[in-house]
Amino acid sequence: MSELTPSMPAVVEAFEVTKRFGSTAALKDVSIRVVPGESHALVGRNGAGKSTLVSILTGLRKPDTGEVRFNGALAPSIADRDAWRERVACVYQHSTIIRDLSVAENLFINRQPVRGGMIDWQAMRRDARALLDHWKIDVREDARAGDLTVEARQLVEIARALSYGARFIILDEPTAQLDGDEIKRLFRRISELQREGVTFLFISHHLQEVYEICQAVTVLRDARHIVSAPVSALPRAQLIEAMTGERGGLNVADAAARDALPPDTAIALQVDELAGSDYEGVSFTVKRGEVVGLTGATSSGRTSVAEAIAGLRAVQRGTVSVDGKALPPADVPAALAHGIGCVPKDRHHEGLVLTQSVAENASMTIARMLGKFGIAPPAKKNAFGQKMIDALGIVAQGPEHVVSGLSGGNQQKVVMARALATDPNVLVLIDPTAGVDVKSKEALLSVVDRVREEGKAVLVVSGELDDLRICDRVLVMFRGRVAAEFSAGWQDHDLIASVEGVSLHEE
């Protein structure tokens, strides 16, 4: 279907769309064309611009330049939400279904049939049943939405979108929370809906799915359009190359040039058969002076594993041990006491108190060491804050500088300072360079090399290739399990193919 002639009217087209947020260009002259009845994949690594493009295609944001057309006609104004709903809908990874309402109530929310000034419940259930039957969606109209499977909730969201008249549906990571059989059933329904005239834009980190379900693919990289082509004309290796481009010129130590650790080096961190809500049977070790990477797609479970190790998240089974001592689960103070330092994923909500100073944030985990009853004198806190400013190159007016006034890169350095404050034996870094500039990345990653030389164990949990180059080994998680291990010196194509669940040698 993707090989239809350019003269055929497109369901949706974006022409040279640009969108900036301050000085940052989220999209630069991006174009995309989706033709009727196809599943068109939109792929790219984190930060490529996919989410911004989706927000423009769904009318949530207006482009700075460029235009969007549906079936050849200009998109409606941003204010006309009903007109947008008639043209496009997005089924997000995190469901917008209201769990405590019934399926029928969710399908007709804010537009329930009314009789005599009251909601006509019988008519609403009848209309819901007719809608579900028409699109062959096998759920009860009176079922509580929260009791449905993830798969069924997604289909209800698709039915709701179709009921407005939209025949263009954006699926954002639709398989992230589904198992193998559920994915197969979802793909069958997508194919059936395509045959009935529904068009899909399919966003996924699992490239194998692109080849299973899609006819065309568009690749974004660094906020730019790289290529659009029929899936059949873009082999896996070429698709991954389009997504990654040339390696950036970060000036950081590559682990491939590092001497191997002695075989008898002590194990600092041991993870045994750890299981949680989105991962199962995860086991690995990190030795003193070793940097191990843990990577995978957003839905792979990598972040949950890291948070469980740091005591931020409960586990269902398994143990985490530091220097041979098992840690109590979901206990941050115990993790700190046993020598684990952590840079959490969300620095604004978990890593920093934005209204407090550099010194207060950096010394938060060691207040008891600086003063009696956990109350540290300001002079001691400021002295420690200045020490961390000097050690990490934090650009601030001084230790009393309020963290909210720092750049993103310097805020992340303050989070790193707090993680290092307890002089941990194990450092867990979750997306440590997310959203920071090149120089800040270099500074943060050089800290990792420094603490490794001090004999500390480091776990780098990230989807960024440059973060992983400093690792002696990289473990790849796929759908909740450790699926592969790469030694330092890996090739970009091979690692990304493993992350995406693709074999480059498949035909």
UniProtKB/TrEMBL annotation:
One of its GO terms (molecular function) is ATP hydrolysis activity. Keywords: ATP-binding, Cell inner membrane, Cell membrane, Membrane, Nucleotide-binding, Repeat, Sugar transport, Transport. Gene3D superfamilies: P-loop containing nucleotide triphosphate hydrolases. It holds the Pfam family ABC_tran. InterPro entries: AAA+_ATPase, ABC_carbohydrate_import_ATPase, ABC_transporter-like_ATP-bd, ABC_transporter-like_CS, P-loop_NTPase. Residues 12-247, 250-504 form the ABC transporter domain. This is Ribose import ATP-binding protein RbsA. The gene is rbsA_2.
